[in-house]
Amino acid sequence: MKHSRNTVPDTRSLSVFPDLAPVESAENKETRPRRRISTKIVSLKDARNKRPSQIGHARAATLSFANMNAYGDLLVRYLMARKSVFIDRMHWQLPETQGMEFDQYDTPLCRWVIIHEFGEVLAGIRLVPTTAQVGLYSYMLRDAQRGLLESIPDDVLFFDAPVEERMWEASRLFVSETVPSSRRSHIQYMLMAHMSRTACEHGAKHVIGIVPAVWSRWLRRLGLYAVPVGRKFDIEGTVSQSALFNVAEMQAMNMDEAIA
Question: What whole-number distance in Å separates Cα of residue 60 and Cα of residue 58?
Fold first, then answer.
């Protein structure tokens, strides 16, 4: 498959993925007021207290093969939501069966972070350890570098893909189009908070993954940022880029308290 840079605004990724803030220069980072983060967290608390009907009853769960039975059919509904997002809307060429999207990385090694409400999946992300090895496959970015994935270029990273216990990979990041604009910040924040908590609980300090290269408002609005660690490239019409998150730093911000 040929990969090219897309110069046309990617409206599909705008409606599916959270937008990422552009990485700040070292100079701007030094002058950036640190209190901006805590102010944003307070504003999310205020939003929850002042507009409870808009926040609703969203809950976060981290599923694995070991505990999926405790969540009924939530994993099935999550895989169905992935099909709706990535196959039906984004038109990615991915495996599917019985209305579910899956691939070779959905194994007992991974963890699925799912935001749900009354049976509806609102958002999700998959975490895979960079130490994973299942047959020929390890994790997505590393396998792309090794030339095992046709849809992702082998120069997806500026450096060799790490194999490190303190680093996990995030993939299949999405927020459902059913989430209204009045709730998206809260749902996005929940997703990032529980992604970082899950990764840290498994010993990770950083999370690396492919994200849409629509570097605009989302993480900056939440007081967060990610560092781009690869060139922009095209996946099925979506301009994407590898990014690195410091989840240990995110946990130090007491993200879970901000959405409790």
Answer: 7
Residue (of 194, 174, 190) closest to 247 by Cα position: 194
Strands 227-228 and 167-175: unpaired
Torsion over CA of 201, 204, 205 and 208, rounded to 10 degrees? -130
E strand map for the chain: 59-63, 96-97, 100-101, 111-117, 120-129, 167-175, 206-212, 227-228, 233-235, 238-246
Gap between the Cα atoms of 54 and 18, Å rounded? 19
Q: Smallest Cα–Cα separation from 55: which of 188, 149, 147?
A: 188
- Of 135, 82, 77, 74, nearest to 104 by C-alpha is 135
Contact 187, 120 (CB under 8 A): no
Which domains, and CATH codes, for the chain?
11-259 (3.40.630.30)
> pLDDT of 196-228, one tens digit each?
999 999 999 999 998 877 654 566 666 677 888
Confidence of residue 123 (pLDDT cuts 50, 70, 90): very high
CB 63 within 8 A of CB 74: yes
Q: Which two tokens stand for residue 153?
A: 């270029």
Residue 145, classed as helix, strand or coil, is helix
Position 153 scores a pLDDT of 95
Nearest to 230 by CA among 1, 3, 12: 3
Q: Is the pLDDT of residue 147 over 60?
A: yes
Is residue 9's pLDDT more than 70?
no
The pTM score is 0.79
